[in-house]
Amino acid sequence: MRNRTKILLLTVATVLLTALVVGIVGYWYAQPTAITIAVGPEDSPEHRFARRLSEALAQNHASVALSIEVCDTQAQALLRFARHDAELAILRTDERRIPASTRALAVLEHEAILVIGVRKTRIDTLADLEGHKVTVLGRDARNEAFLRRLLEQYKVDFKRIDLRTVPSDTKLETLLSGTNDLVVLFEPLSRLESASEFGSLANSVRGVSVHAIGDAKALERKVPGLYAETIEPGLLSGSPRIPEEEIETVALHKILVARAKLPDWQVVELMRALFESGRQLGIEKTFGTRIEPPDTEKGALIASHEGASQYVEREVETVFERYSDLIYLSMSTMSVIGSAAIALYSTVFRRRPVQVEDRLGALVALCQRARTATAIAQCEAIEGELDALIHDVLQGIADGTISPRGIDAFRLGCETCRSILVATRTQLA
Fold first, then answer.
1. Does residue 99 sit in helix, strand or coil?
2. What CATH number is given for 36-317 in this structure?
3. What DSSP element (H or E) covers 18?
4. pTM to 2 decimals?
5. How high is the pLDDT of residue 352?
6. 192: left (phi > 0), else alpha (psi -120 to 50), else beta?
7. What is the pLDDT, as a whole number, of residue 349?
8. Which of 133, 211, 241, 368 could make an SS bond with 115 (beta carbons 3.0 to 4.6 A apart)?
9. Is 130 exposed, middle or buried (0-12, 13-18, 19+ CB in 10 A)?
10. pLDDT tens digits for range 356-385
């Protein structure tokens, strides 16, 4: 195969290989990393929030994508998270079985506990529920179970409380106009800020009031996952004004959590979508309208993820820090490939350097001519060519264009040639 053909084929192969490597790397880099989140049924606010978060990540061309794992109940979703079948989940802080590897990313919602009843019923603390008929609104029995857990703090005799749970979509008017003394709600603050049914309730049922939980601060200290909350005057209804004055209550938090081993840079991408997408993630003013950073203090119920802390403290890793291992491995691989390519190209394109011994053929020819010379003029011409040959060799060695390999043989040849010339001149004379 001709050298020019080899050069052309190697050039084409190099271009194609480079394009292939760049294409593979570009495709790999452009593909977002999938992260699975386990949520409840499709009609739950958690599922709708997860869907909006997934859309926000896609619109922002983030390097992570959200894969939604739908479960029949929220309890099943948390079970899948605990079994490491999902990297993300949304849990309420009254959950008793929180895996040790759980890390907090953001507080999505405050779920306040409201005790609603008629004015003739006096409630100062939850202990005053004893002796009343109490209805709890909830999708399942979790709200009632947590309320019983709170009542245990007061050593309440449950035989003296008629406690039951009804579906969360049950009308409050129906409950309060019947034989129920009190209704306990677990309501997101996002919904309370835009609720309108409390005004209608006050107009239809005279004497409705929202009772304060006077020892909210004490309950916060006693019960993990419970937080004191303030309900501002008129938050539930502006006309009539409900509540008439600021009241204290308690609330549970709904937190977006991740597994501790989830890479920091993936968490940072999620945090960007959570806090830089505005109200795009809020669910119709009922959930997730005011997302908050996690509690980064020591002793928090759920420790914050390191990536979330980096985002909150603006200590996000640079691209080089994030991919340092990958960059080091790529550089090592490219070094090996580069060395192999250089060796291959050297084999194809390498040319043998000019050496002094390459001039021995011309020197031998001068010696033969010197032996057969028939005139003094021929001897002088041969001596001139010898001097020119010696000058070219010395000049080449000086400027590096000729390798000194074979210099001893060349010197011996030059001496032999001059001896032959002397002998020939003597014979002709």
1. coil
2. 3.40.190.10
3. helix 3-30
4. 0.68
5. 62
6. alpha
7. 55
8. 211
9. middle
10. 788 888 888 888 888 888 888 888 888 888
